[in-house]
Amino acid sequence: MPVFSAKNPDHSDLRLDTTLTDQPMPIQKDHIREALSTVLLPTGEDLVSADAVLNIAVCDEHASVRISMTNDAHTPQPPKETLTKLGAVIDSAVRAQAKEVGIDNLTLIIDFVDHAGQVLMKLNSNHKAAPEQTKTPGAPNAQNAATGVPGVKHIIAVGAGKGGVGKSTVAVNLAIGLARKGHSVGILDGDIYGPSLPTMLGLANLDQVVIESNMMPFLVHDIKAITMGKLVETDKPLIWRGPMAHGAFHQLIERTQWGELDYLIIDLPPGTGDVPLTLAQTVQLAGAVVVCTPQRVAQDDAVRAVNMFKSLGVETLGVVENMSYFIGDDGKEYDIFGRGGAQHMAQRLNLPFLGAIPITMALRENSDNGTPSNNFDSATAGGDQLPAALEAMTNQIIAQVTLATMQQGQTKPTLTIS
Ligand code: ADP
Questions:
Q1: Contact 367 CB / ligand 1 (< 6 Å)
Q2: Does the global pTM surpass 0.70?
């Protein structure tokens, strides 16, 4: 096993004067590069002079580095144990450098890639002040033993393998369904790349209130809501690279004054990107709801989402089949996309099925008009089927959350690397 070591770094030239402010100074790429140049390879070269550092990105208290140990297809890749060991040395070198500029809780993502840029291993660590040595996927944070968000009892993520399957629609209607049962509910639009909540909840004419750098959630339809869509210009594309996405999402979670909540619903971006990873590291989730349409191609994407949650140590509470069937004006049901496809997928994966939501004009209109409460009243929902389907879904999810919470009370995840 090769031995990696760190030079004894003298950071005196980089030490910044922090006497004027209690705020940590932002960490710079050069700080990270300096730290990486203290990591020695078995050849005697350091990571920087060996041209192993392909990329460094920093944003506030988040940093990511991309390392390649080979630059052609013929050189064999180091074994995983070697990369893990090297990752630990990099982690402590970078963290020591971050401390020099007053950052104690740096989040560091280390990607080991091959010569073609394909990720071989991703290491992720966040040494936030907490009783644990490392933050672990799915592990609670010190603020609140249950969820990591003060005052919040259960956190449910709503995810999907791809966009357009109705993930936000399900998240919004789940939140309202829970509130209608008397629970206090918040919803966080974690889809920072394409936030839908401003439209779906009708937030257009409301302004975000910020008090002492804490965001006050909007109070609409008897739920509390927060969305990146009210913090940025909505018609501009939101391009977040890994660490920026991490930072933006982190702030939404940690800087919102939720008060007491029974349930916090998090509408995740589609696919398997950085945000779910950040989420799993930041809070203790009751679990994730995966939304899928019945078609085969949608199922394949949903399976990927389920596997992602698994690898993050997050339990999948079950699958919702959205756009399961169409209800025409004649009240008849039409199986446009192959009703039951997502249900079968859930069975195959041994996951609970959480309900089938029909395609209805009313659901689409109420989403576009920001009037989702109308989906729960047969007079404004185009009949009884939609309210009944939403009610059944909400009940199923409450049952699964209760079960998952009981099980989590017995076992605690211990993963440290994903
Ligand atoms: P995602 O979050 O997966 O990208 P959305 O929830 O934004 O998807 O839904 C995409 C579009 O489809 C929205 O216009 C929404 O109103 C519509 N939609 C979603 N589910 C249904 C449904 N069951 N019936 C009718 N329209 C729906």
A1: yes
A2: no
